[in-house]
Amino acid sequence: MEVKREDFRAKKEELLGLLRREGLTPEVERKIIEVYGERGRKALSAIRQGRVRRKGKIWVVRGKTEEYEIVRDLCYCMDYVMNVVTGKAGVDLCYHALAKKILEILDERGG
Q1: What DSSP string runs through the chain?
Q2: What does the domain layout of the chain look like in residue ranges?
Q3: What is the pTM of this model?
Q4: How many angstroms separate the CA atoms of 53 and 47, rounded?
């Protein structure tokens, strides 16, 4: 289990470095989906649909039924609570927190 977790961390760090260097290119989008699977697809969809926004220091992501405030990388959606926190998901972020993370990095690099 620990090897898989380390493998995920390495892939995530590579992905975030690529995003910081290149922005949200088609290659980076493919990498997001490769690392995060369906959560990656949903995060990119939320970004494209304008469902992620920043209110001062607070990030808000509109999901299917409600809006979620993302604090650091924490979300209170059911996926995060039931699958991410428990380790069942095999990744460290729900799609809401991932969408926020992507836009936060793009914001830091100036678009």
Answers
A1: -HHHHHHHHHHHHHHHHHHHHH-S-HHHHHHHHHHHTHHHHHHHHHHHTT-EEEETTEEEEE-SSSEEEEBTTB--SHHIIIIITTTTTSSS--HHHHHHHHHHHHHHTT-
A2: 2-108
A3: 0.93
A4: 9
Structure tokens at 46: 């939320």
For residues 106 and 20, give the distance between their C-alpha atoms in angstroms, rounded to a whole number: 7
Give the strands of the sheet with 67-70, arranged side by side: 52-55, 58-62, 67-70
Token pair 């409600």 in the structure block, residue: 66
Q: Which two tokens stand for residue 56?
A: 């001062």
pLDDT tens sequence across 37-92: 999 999 999 999 999 999 888 999 999 899 999 999 999 999 999 999 999 999 99
Euclidean distance between CA atoms 75 and 98, whole angstroms: 10
